[in-house]
Amino acid sequence: MSRPITPSQTIGPFFSHALPWPDGPYVVAEGTQGAIWLRGTVLDGNGEPVPDALVESWQADPDGRFDHPDDPRGAVDGFRGFGRCHTDEAGQWAILTVKPGPVPGPDGTVQAPHVDLSVFARGLLDRVVTRAYFPDEEQANAADPVLAGITDPTARATLVAATTDDGYQFDVRLQGDRETVFFAV
Amino acid sequence: MTERSLHLPDRLAVPGYRRDVEGAHPPLLYRDYKSTVQRAPSRPLTVLPHTLTEVTGPLLGDGRVGALDHDLTRQHPGEPLGERIIVHGRVLDGDGRPVPHTLVEVWQTNAAGRYAHARDQHPAPLDPNFTGVGRCLTDDQGGFRFITVKPGAYPWKNHPNAWRPAHIHFSLFGRAFVQRLITQMYFPGDPLFEFDPIFNSVGDQRTRDRLVSSFDLSETVPEWALAYRFDIVLRGPEATPVEDLEGHR
């Protein structure tokens, strides 16, 4: 029997005593080989930092596989793949993870390494979803079926992180000239 | 990176999830809710195919839930003030199938309408016996049950004399990235509904009604607590094309 879904509502401003976990930002433990910090700032339409956002990440392991029964190759055990971090006063978040591998895409394509991100905040009546790709994967990015669907190079560039000393930087601009590409899922 | 890890069995399609129909969720820009004006994306969303990344998702298990996490009235030395209530329901998918063993997180104000959050400035008392944070895993039938106190209404600065109707925030994962949902549960008959832009951001009455719990006498515990029921429906899977089923036999 088909049932209509429950509508989304905003996370509101007062969740940071409730949703964050001590290990939330640690997709992998500190000291894990190949660990990187994926960091970013969430900015509003005025370019002001958003200090009350929650960022969640979901990704494959370095072999491009998921610890999930619906991965038709079988679940790989023990890779959480999920990160959760609320932004600080400066709108900044950070997740310690490892770079994912390429993931099978539609119609036999291969997706470049990517991290799915959800952003929740006061003033967002539903989450917004984006993807972080990696700047050192030029060839894979060029062949990625999702990036290929975004023809405006400025828009496409919003989906590619920048390299930093300890990993990558991926800012989320909710609005404005350099607005991040957001996805309907 | 090995070839094996990229191999998908022949003709095994990745099952997608049904897309939301127009109006199933509030629009991102809803001017009566002022915070949306600087935060809602202004460009149209790009449709993302449901790839393996989207049809999988975190399956966060038992290690996340403590023995008293479902009972918000027993997390401190004393009992919180206010009206004790039971909030229960089921997490289902769009086909009406239960979503078992999925993490449900809730948070709310105390009975006076104040969050135990450092930035909440509402001049109502904090309750030392109430944090207002709970979590549980659904059972085999997708069921959950929290014990808490009824949250209070509270003022906010969206417009003159703005008050939020009493609500409990719910966070749900389902089993796929595309099923992730954060929402709010309201109480039946609240006189503040018609003045609340967050509630009214949901376009039509029947859709809004899905956010309102129902009074449930059958789950009431006599001499102890009233009960409210709130069923939550996450997206359902797309129907699997017959040819894929045949090809996979």
Task: Characterise the protein shown here.
- The complex is a heterodimer of chains A (185) and B (249).
- Chain A is mainly beta and 185 residues long.
- Chain A has one domain (35-173): Protocatechuate 3,4-Dioxygenase, subunit A, CATH 2.60.130.
- In chain A, 8% of the residues lie in helices and 30% in strands.
- Chain A is built from 3 helices and 12 strands.
- Chain A has helices at residues 138-142, 145-148, 153-157, and strands spanning 35-43, 53-59, 82-86, 92-98, 103-104, 110-111, 114-121, 128-133, 162-164, 167-169, 172-173, 183-184.
- In chain A, strand 9 (162-164) and strand 10 form a beta hairpin.
- Chain A is globular.
- Chain B has 249 residues and is mostly beta strands.
- Chain B has one domain: Aromatic compound dioxygenase (Protocatechuate 3,4-Dioxygenase, subunit A, Sandwich), CATH 2.60.130.10.
- Chain B contains 5 helices and 12 strands.
- In chain B, strands 2, 5, 10, 11 and 12 form a 5-stranded mixed β-sheet that branches.
- In chain B, a hairpin with an 8-residue loop joins strand 8 (167-172) and strand 9 (181-186).
- The two termini of chain B are 30 Å apart.
- Mean pLDDT of chain B is 92; it is low at 1-7 and 242-249.
- The chains are: A mainly beta (185), B mainly beta (249).
- The interface between A and B is large, with 80 and 85 residues.
- Strand 12 (183-184) of chain A pairs parallel with strand 1 of chain B, so a sheet runs across the interface.
Structure at a glance:
With 185 residues, chain A is mainly beta.
Strand content bin of chain B: 15-25%
Work out the count of structural domains of chain B. 1
Instruction: Provide the β-strand percentage band of chain A.
Output: 25-35%
Q: Kindly provide the name of the CATH class of chain A.
A: Mainly Beta
The CATH architecture term of chain B is: Sandwich
Number of strands of chain A: 12
Query: What number is the mean pLDDT of chain A?
Result: 96
CATH architecture of chain A: Sandwich
CATH overall fold name of chain B: Protocatechuate 3,4-Dioxygenase, subunit A
Oligomer: heterodimer
Rounded to the nearest angstrom, the distance between the terminal CA atoms of chain A is: 23 Å
**Unreliable sequence segments of chain B:** 1-7, 242-249
- Biggest interface between chains: A-B, 80 and 85 residues
Number of strands of chain B: 12
Q: Spell out the CATH superfamily of chain B.
A: Aromatic compound dioxygenase
DSSP helical segment count of chain A? 3
Shape of chain A: globular
